[in-house]
């Protein structure tokens, strides 16, 4: 009896050869393969043409259209935007990556938000929402009307309204701004604009007004609400001012402690001219846009 040893490798090679021979002798399979090659060739050609077209001089950025959102731009100039775009631009209108362009524009301090769009054949449309500063925050930051901090300079602020100084623990700017808006309404009858509002690390409130008036409000957990105590103080001011008035003084500067439930303590300081108060600009937190 004779035995024939058959190598597995040889068997696999024989099967592959048979499959390849069957493939080359099968017109339907050859037609499908030829169609696939043709499709790949067409796709490569189309991509090559698209890349070549996208980098033609006709698509080089010729104009940038700046469109403000919510009124005319006051702090962001067209040259600033153009310089940011030129720095980040990495191709033509069709080939450039707009993400770096958007990031470069967004990095301008007075830009709150921006969108960038392509306009055929060689223009870019940039829509800008500008920051509207209403207050100052420590470490050189400003606070916008939504309670967000940004790194704009107070010196660049529009001089038509005044910025109140806010102080508080990190991350509390939105809370402090909301309380400042409330205080501005509660104290409006005094005709003394706010100068600063401080929230301490122990969450106690201190308010300074134009004309040398400082109010200690304490924490919100006191027996009576801050609004009730502030309105009580405002209501008693005509009588108190009349009693404390001195010659050549129209207003009295004082420090008042409003942390009591049914009254307050005060210490008169130095009188100031009423002209100082009347010449104060309206606060930006109360100016509608």
Descriptive report:
- The chain has a nine-stranded mixed beta sheet, with helices on one face. It has a three-stranded mixed beta sheet with strand order 1-3-2.
- By secondary structure, the protein is an alpha/beta fold.
- Helices cover 36% and strands 23% of the residues.
- Helix 3 (78-88) packs antiparallel against helix 4.
- The chain has two domains: 60-130, membrane protein fhac (Ubiquitin-like (UB roll)), CATH 3.10.20.310; 133-286, Rossmann fold, CATH 3.40.50.11690.
- The protein has helices at 8-24, 27-54, 78-88, 98-106, 173-186, 226-244, 274-278, and strands spanning 63-69, 111-119, 123-130, 133-137, 141-144, 149-150, 164-167, 194-199, 204-209, 213-219, 254-257, 265-268.
- It is built from seven helices and twelve strands.
Q: Low-confidence parts, pLDDT < 50 over ≥5 residues?
A: none
Instruction: Give the C-level CATH assignment of the largest domain.
Output: Alpha Beta
Mean pLDDT: 81
Total number of distinct structural domains = 2
Care to count the β-strands? 12
Shape: elongated
Judged by helices, strands and strand pairing, the structural class is alpha/beta
**Order of the strands making up the biggest sheet:** 6-5-4-7-8-9-10-11-12
Order of helices and strands: HHEHHEEEEEEHEEEHEEH
Percentage of residues in DSSP E strands: 15-25%
CATH topology value of the largest domain: Rossmann fold
Number of helices: 7
- Major sheet summary line: 9 strands, mixed
CATH superfamily of the largest domain: Cell division protein FtsQ/DivIB
Please tell me the CATH architecture of the largest domain by its name. Answer: 3-Layer(aba) Sandwich
The helicity comes to: 25-40%
Cα radius of gyration in angstroms: 36 Å
The termini sit apart by 106 Å
